[in-house]
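Record type: monomer structure entry
Structure origin: computed from sequence
Chain ID: A
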Amino acid sequence: MKTFSIAVLPGDGIGPEVIAQAVRVLEAVGERFEIRFVFETLPIGAAGIVAANEPLPPVTRDAVIQSDAVLLGAVGDPRFDTAPRNLRPETGLLALRKLLGVFANLRPVAIHPALVNASPLKPDRLHGVDLLVVRELTGGLYYGEPRGRRETRATNTLTYTAAEIERVAKVAFEAARTRRGLVTSVDKANVLEVSQLWRETVSELAGEYPDVRLEHCYVDTAAMRLVSDPASFDVVLTENMFGDILSDEAAVLVGSLGLLPSASLGPGPGLFEPVHGSAPPLAGRDVANPIGAIATAALLLRQGLHLPEAAGAIDDAIALALDSGARTQDLARPGEPSIGTREMGTRIADLILAEALEGLS
């Protein structure tokens, strides 16, 4: 029996609720495919501050480095919105990404046929939407120095090296080779020197991938195309802040931020987290959508542990649950019944174990 260690960081807000369902689904996968998962639950974000006065406590740092993969819920708590930078939950997330060296964030966005009416876009604009955002994750404005604030003046620095750009661009080009062969590199090269370096570096690397078509797109145009012609994208490559914004915009296409997973990859253990935030108003109410976290577990299996068959079983179970009409509150139309976080997780876990799924995975 294969054994894998998973560092589980439930985090804040709805994080613990949705991650509990992702773990439940992984346990079902383990039972079906004879895989042993060893889960270690650790604090991060506001939970880390409460437990150890640090958003990324030493015990968490040590454990994630030793794990095979890291499953993260979400960080963020309004109680710490005005705290010093070193005592803010988000600082723990940035430190975790840096610690693991996860420089490439992958956010897939595809339309499930049963959820076409959940999107605010007209169905004809959603036909054929299947894109992957590849976001650089450990550079740019979020990490640049110098930074700081003095009363009425604040500074953030946007910095990238050609090497940082090239390594994430390689991830995008390799992904495009397995998809439809198109990379759209998003920048603001008409006004930013960093974007000019980005465009030059990506263009040079493209010569090593003659089977992949490269197009450049300004970030404002990309934002417009995401809602006017989303099917025109295959792989979207961009820097940290642009990727943060555009991937959340892309979530609107599928009808709910609660549906989308992400994988952050580097030389060591991968970091896997749903795209949504901690959503404090929803915490403890059993209404949050766990599908993003459960789909993240599938990415963990596929990208982190290289278990494509097990990952496919989760994807199939999610599709079957949605096809059967299972809807959490964020997906239900007016007058349509909805189910809670725990019940959605239970249904998907049960489907993984059901014999009816055997022919699909």
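Annotation 1: The chain has two domains: 1-102+261-361, 120-254.
Annotation 2: The chain has twelve helices and twelve strands.
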